[in-house]
Write a structure and sequence with these properties.
A hairpin with a 3-residue loop joins strand 6 and strand 7. The longest helix is centred in the middle third of the chain and has 15 residues. The strands form 2 sheets. Strands 1, 2, 3, 5, 6, 7 and 8 form a 7-stranded antiparallel sheet that branches. Strands 4-9 form a two-stranded antiparallel ribbon. It has 3 helices and 9 strands; from the N terminus they run αβββαββββββα. 18% of the residues lie in helices and 27% in strands. It has a single domain, classed as Hotdog Thioesterase (Thiol Ester Dehydrase, Chain A). The chain is an alpha+beta fold and 209 residues long.
């Protein structure tokens, strides 16, 4: 459990070079994936202003990352990835994180099939999103999207960042975002609190073997 601030900071200093400490934290931080820890040691990167994470969030300590090359359909007339194109990649990061956690976002009104991972009796609509654009991404650049997730009483907080990967192993932060999702039942009624059974299920799925 990540409840020792000095140990956490020491882990960062040992794991990351100075150029990385500002924006990147290891993907797997603890055998316990959900933890209540102080805000100054929350397991995701420092957020550029004006992004702020809400107080009282319990953070899962495993992120999901994937990389892709910027395609022509994501760029504008100047060959730069336009601001609206990132929305679908942020969505993919959120959906893939949930899939990694064992939650399948399927049509709730059809019977589950053997291919479904774990049919979930909840709906997670986006209620708020903040995006900060830090640097451009151009056609054929390679980007890596990292997604961290936390929960409050009945809300999900998805903290996401994209980095442009250089040929000389440099990483440049291009986009930082926070997306908040509500929790509804299949009748689209708000859930007062995310069930601990769901939290436990995710925790067990994310715990390293």
């Amino acid at each position: 459990m990540l409840n020792n601030a000095s140990h956490f900071r020491g882990l960062l200093r040992h794991t990351l070079c100075s150029s990385q400490r500002r924006y990147f934290i290891p993907i797997i931080l603890s055998m316990t994936c959900l933890t209540d820890i102080p805000r100054d040691t929350i397991p995701f990167p420092m957020l550029p202003k004006p992004l702020t994470a809400p107080d009282g969030v319990r953070w899962f300590a495993q992120a999901y990352c994937f990389s892709w090359d910027v395609q022509v359909f994501d760029t504008d007339a100047y060959g730069v990835m336009w601001h609206g194109a990132i929305t679908k990649w942020l969505e993919q990061g959120r959906v893939d994180w949930l899939k990694q956690a064992g939650i399948a976002l399927i049509d709730p009104h059809r019977p589950p099939t053997p291919e479904d991972n774990h049919p979930c009796p909840y709906i997670f609509p986006v209620t708020h999103q903040q995006v900060v654009y830090k640097a451009p991404a151009r056609l054929h650049d390679t980007l890596r999207l990292s997604t961290w997730v936390g929960i409050t009483k009945n809300r999900w907080q998805f903290v996401q960042q994209t980095h442009r990967l250089g040929a000389d192993n440099t990483e440049t932060l291009t986009i930082a975002a926070i997306t908040e999702c509500a929790t509804l039942d299949l009748n689209w009624r708000p859930i007062r609190a995310i069930p601990e059974t769901l939290v436990t299920f995710i925790d067990e799925r994310l715990r390293p073997a």
